[in-house]
């Protein structure tokens, strides 16, 4: 058995983007923008925004997945900003996060 599957882990790796000099503030704003685009996709294409958009289920779910990956990419980029500009130890923060999830009963 793969040790990652033992605890329901699925690893998704996202790259550190090149050619950008994000600040904590600019990254936080970008994160909110991308989260808004995800919410818009969910609302608009699930007919929860008052608009009558005709899309099939596969298109809707595909759009949501793409928007969610944009949110995840910006969140990862923000973690790199914290690491590089504020000396945050991401490995330690990840361990603390996993322990928090275990304490809440979300992981064994």
Automatic annotation (TrEMBL):
Lineage top rank: taxon: Bacteria
Pfam families referenced in this protein's UniProt entry, alphabetically: MazG
CDD domains linked: NTP-PPase_Af0060_like (cd11533)
InterPro entries per UniProt: AF0060_NTP-PPase_MazG-like, MazG-like_dom
Domain NTP pyrophosphohydrolase MazG-like per the UniProt entry, residue ranges: 23-102
Protein name: NTP pyrophosphohydrolase MazG-like domain-containing protein
Protein's organism: Fervidicola ferrireducens
